Amino acid sequence: MKNTFGGRLSALLQERGLQQQELAKLAGVTEAAVSHYVKGTRIPRSSVLARIAAALGTSSDYLISGNAENAEGESEMNQLKRMIARSASQMSHKEKMELISILMGPD
Question: Does pLDDT of 20 surpass 90?
Fold first, then answer.
């Protein structure tokens, strides 16, 4: 069941020890809406999806597609790639080499 939006939502509620009622309050939606999301009869709008993901400590991407995540809701590798891409032009050659060394790990 974890291969559907409703299944992942249900599993996260259970893992976090939250009731649908609590999630509804945190996400600013009705209990009926959360029930529909869990059953898979509705998918929330993007703004609601973002609030649900934040309330559950995950990402919208994980809820929708099931992509692996870390505590911040993003795979560690994707997070690293994004950080490096943003910073690469500002890094010195030495800093880039140190980063490569860290990523490669000890011999």
Answer: yes
